[in-house]
Design a protein that fits this description.
single chain, 12 helices, 312 residues, alpha/beta, globular, five-stranded mixed β-sheet, two-stranded parallel sheet
Length: 312
């Protein structure tokens, strides 16, 4: 919600659509949903409204019994998320994106990373046929919150955040290595989801598995993010703009979609956009990017094939 609100405010202030100003967009988990929405030509305010409208349904308020259930099976329904995604993406495919996309997931059967990509290189001859909602489900199937997502082709995916919680370095590598763009020419906008200052208290340092059960995931995600941002800054230096508001620890949780929380995050996104707008305008919005022409165009047969395999 913070990320979508930030981007919506950037579009509102500038009067420009972000998809016209970025050659490549990468996203993981909820960031994958945002990347797909922007890439498929939705306005950022439409993406923001997706969270306002569907957030409370995807992440319903749960009681004590449901919280304990989350230790045994996922807390929330992937079917509910799939239905919400269908309402905005319909039968559109990854290949219908107006710019290059890189969407992070993890192949739980193969035990390896997986990046869904548009057809922006000759060897990328398959992913573009996937339904956008299927790609989003693969990237956003966060362990403990949702069950793993099984695609129509039998692949089993979990949330890309297990390896690319912050995909900024991956995006730079894609632009430099695959698209053969000089590092000196790259300008990068990295949008976070708010964060709190991290501190490992003395009791945690001495704690066993029970005390670390919740803390470990948070620490790994934070360390992943910090490492990716450090690598990105080494590669593109001051041409990286990082946006993420610092909040007090525990202020927001991953599946709190109460109306007050959503509005608070919306307000933080608006404030951050207004603060960052001068630099964003200078680096990203002064010119449009060339029209993206995929190497392999999407055909009606591709859409019918993806739908018939049950990839929703």
């Amino acid at each position: 919600m913070f990320s979508a609100s930030f981007l919506a405010e950037v579009e509102a202030i500038s009067g420009k659509q972000l998809v016209d100003h970025f050659d490549l967009i990468a996203g993981t988990s909820t960031g994958a949903i945002i990347a797909l929405g922007i890439g498929l030509g939705l306005s950022a305010v439409e993406v923001k409204n997706f969270y306002l409208e569907h957030g409370p349904t995807i992440f319903p308020i749960t009681g004590i019994s449901s919280r304990f259930r989350g230790w045994i099976r996922p807390k929330h329904s992937l079917d509910t998320l799939a239905s919400a995604l269908t309402s905005v993406f319909g039968e559109r495919t990854l290949g219908e994106a107006l710019t290059r996309l890189a969407i992070c997931a993890y192949d739980a059967n193969l035990g390896n990373v997986h990046i869904f990509k548009t057809a922006h290189h000759p060897r990328l001859a398959k992913d573009y046929r996937q339904l956008a909602r299927d790609v989003a489900l693969a990237s956003a199937a966060a362990p403990t919150f949702f069950p793993a997502h099984t695609s129509g082709s039998g692949q089993v995916f979990v949330d890309g955040g297990v390896w690319a919680n912050c995909p900024v370095a991956l995006a730079i590598i894609e632009a430099h290595v695959v698209l053969e763009q000089p590092l000196a020419d790259l300008r990068v906008l990295s949008v976070g989801t708010t964060q709190g200052p991290y501190s490992l208290g003395s009791w945690k340092r001495l704690g066993g598995g029970l005390l670390w059960a919740k803390e470990a995931a948070m620490l790994l995600h934070r360390a992943q993010q910090d490492g990716a941002l450090a690598a990105a800054r080494l590669m593109v230096e001051d041409r990286l703009v990082r946006v993420s508001t610092t909040v007090r620890p525990g202020r927001f949780t991953l599946d709190d979609a109460s109306s007050q929380t959503l509005r608070d995050l919306e307000g933080l996104g608006v404030a951050e956009a207004r603060r960052a707008m001068p630099r964003i305008t200078d680096l990203f919005l002064t010119q449009t990017v060339p029209t993206f022409v995929p190497i392999y165009p999407v055909t009606a047969d591709h859409v019918r094939d993806a739908t018939s395999r049950g990839e929703a």
